[in-house]
């Protein structure tokens, strides 16, 4: 396989950060139990994770090609490895803050680099669609694994036993570092502008293009839906079906696995079918599930639940919506990146990461407000609004990318 070493390295890098990023909810729970902080203080870990991702991706994306994608990824992996070791020995709330700030900075370097390198190792839009979807699917597998990996290190007799997971994560980061270090690839020599100031100017100019405006709105709307569901799904099962807390958390892993299946499946299908038809079908299917499946889940009567095996079959149905919404994000990103010159992939990725972070924060906040004001039974029905807007945006995006390709050809 051409560029096999590079592609494997991209997969492994993303997988490691999927586990680290998704552990924030677990570390919040451990902080409440072990470090004597309250809910408001513990929630600050989300900000320590998300803000560095948004800020660093925007700041460095425009001139990352000058630094080198390989150097950037190696730096991110080393920083995360040392942060994991520091968390083990520090064992405090402030070291947890440092951990997630370090992981946020590192992930910004990794994501901008990965998205840019995908453009270097693929030659056609369908190749780009396929690799992007597969890598994002592998990311979701990492997220699902985190729900089982951290509990595996728990011990009822030792409250600090869970920290041993950070030696494993540090080891994975180091192995990924070695794999990337010994992988040679041509990073390309195109940079956005003639100097650093011009790099920033080129990135700012992207924001004035109609294609980019429609795209960032699409990315914002999607992450708003995905993150709103992912963050509040455990609370939904806890309040609506009154499941035990640990079972409610495990149900969120089903949603993550559904996202993984959807993205990997889209990576295969997109080799043969246009991204536009795939996304149109997926959004319509997701809306149908919200309209017809969600009410049945809300109305189901359950008896005593001790494990996920005791949940009625219909209880599993709503998390499967992840299969349909999963292909949207990677195929959206791929459709726009493949329509732009390779020299603009790095600054464009900076915008993707920035608006994704904003969309995720907005989605979680609005869904939380809906849980409080409208109730857990009705909150997810409001995802239909951004879904409809997203469908309209995708139709506009398809027309704009087609025009772009016609001009290019």
Could you characterize what this model shows?
- With 409 residues, this protein is mainly α.
- The chain has one domain: MFS general substrate transporter like domains (Growth Hormone, Chain: A, Up-down Bundle), CATH 1.20.1250.
- The chain has 18 helices and no strands.
The radius of gyration computed from the alpha-carbon positions, rounded to a whole number of angstroms, is 21 Å
Strand-residue proportion = under 5%
CATH topology-level name: Growth Hormone, Chain: A
| Biggest β-sheet strands, sense, barrel | none
Query: Helices and strands: which structural class?
Result: mainly alpha
> Could you name the ranges where pLDDT drops below 50 across 5 or more consecutive residues?
none
Proper CATH architecture: Up-down Bundle
**Which shape, going by the Cα principal axes?**
globular
């Amino acid at each position: 396989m051409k560029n096999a070493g590079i592609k494997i390295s991209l997969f492994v890098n993303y997988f490691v950060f999927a586990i680290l990023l998704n552990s924030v909810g677990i570390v919040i729970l451990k902080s409440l139990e072990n470090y004597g902080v309250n809910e408001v203080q513990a929630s600050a870990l989300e900000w320590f994770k998300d803000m560095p991702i948004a800020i660093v991706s925007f700041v460095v994306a425009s001139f990352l090609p000058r630094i080198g994608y390989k150097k950037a990824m190696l730096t991110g992996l080393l920083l995360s490895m040392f942060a994991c070791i520091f968390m083990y020995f520090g064992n405090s709330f402030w070291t947890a803050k440092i951990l997630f700030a370090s992981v946020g900075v590192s992930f910004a370097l990794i994501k901008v680099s990965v998205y840019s390198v995908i453009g270097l190792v693929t030659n056609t839009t369908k190749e780009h669609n396929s690799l992007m979807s597969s890598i994002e699917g592998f990311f979701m597998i990492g997220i699902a694994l985190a729900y089982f990996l951290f509990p595996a290190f728990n011990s009822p007799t030792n409250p600090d036993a869970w920290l041993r997971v950070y030696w494993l994560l540090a080891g994975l980061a180091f192995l990924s570092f070695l794999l990337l270090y010994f992988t040679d690839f041509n990073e390309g020599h195109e940079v956005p502008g003639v100097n650093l100031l011009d790099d920033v100017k080129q990135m700012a100019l992207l924001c004035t293009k109609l294609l980019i405006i429609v795209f960032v709105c699409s990315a914002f709307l999607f992450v708003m839906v995905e993150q709103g569901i992912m963050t509040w799904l455990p609370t939904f099962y806890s309040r609506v079906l009154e499941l035990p807390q640990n079972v409610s958390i495990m149900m969120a892993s089903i949603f993550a696995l559904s996202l993984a299946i959807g993205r990997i499946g889209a990576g295969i299908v997109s080799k043969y079918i246009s991204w536009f038809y795939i996304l149109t079908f997926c959004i319509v299917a997701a809306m149908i599930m919200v309209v017809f499946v969600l009410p049945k889940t809300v109305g189901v009567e359950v008896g005593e639940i001790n494990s996920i095996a005791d949940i009625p079959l219909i209880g599993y149905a709503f998390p499967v919506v992840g299969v349909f919404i999963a292909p949207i994000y990677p195929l959206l990103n791929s459709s726009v990146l493949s329509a732009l010159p390779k020299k603009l992939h790095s600054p464009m990725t900076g915008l993707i990461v920035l608006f994704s972070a904003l969309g995720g924060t907005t989605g979680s906040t609005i869904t939380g407000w809906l849980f409080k004001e409208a109730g857990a039974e009705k909150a997810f029905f409001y995802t239909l609004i951004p879904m409809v807007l997203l469908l309209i945006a995708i139709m506009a995006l398809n027309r704009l990318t087609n025009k772009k390709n016609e001009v290019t050809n």
